[in-house]
Write a structure and sequence with these properties.
- By secondary structure, the chain is mainly α.
- It has a single domain, classed as Four Helix Bundle (Hemerythrin (Met), subunit A), CATH 1.20.120.290.
- It contains five helices and no strands.
- The longest helix is centred in the first third of the chain and has 46 residues.
Length: about 130
């Protein structure tokens, strides 16, 4: 049986489209999972900040940075580099303010970092507006 060129091309396009959508869904799930893990760590940072446990805050920040450093290379391949840079800068500022024990600045950077993480999830979500 002979399959026409148009049928073969349509089948290949359908296969490539399905694989692309599958990859996008997996990437979106990975980003969402990473953000959820980071937010758990940042909740520990906020708890330490509220009790003014500066050594605990440093430890929680260190663990957050370790999680981020593991995820960062994958994010660079999946996302806009500016989003990754914003998260890097917020984490760096958060650590610096934590070392200086500036409570208000740490709190502001925590909220900024949370915003950047939520923005990353929103921008990576598979929606019509993100596709076109």
């Amino acid at each position: 049986m002979h399959i026409s060129y148009n049928t073969r091309m349509a089948a290949w396009l359908l296969l490539v489209s399905l694989l692309t959508i599958g990859f996008c869904l997996l990437a979106s799930a990975y980003v969402s999972q990473t953000v959820a893990e980071m937010q758990e760590e940042l909740a520990r940072v906020e708890t330490a900040l509220q009790t003014e446990d500066w050594p605990g805050l440093e430890q929680a920040l260190s663990q957050s940075r370790q999680k981020w450093q593991k995820a960062r290379p994958f994010w660079l391949g999946l996302m806009n580099h500016q989003d990754v840079t914003n998260i890097d800068l917020a984490l760096q500022s958060l650590q610096a303010y934590g070392q200086e024990q500036k409570r208000e600045d740490v709190l502001n950077q925590l909220h900024l970092l949370d915003y950047y993480l939520q923005l990353a999830v929103e921008c990576d979500r598979l929606t019509w507006s993100n596709l076109f």
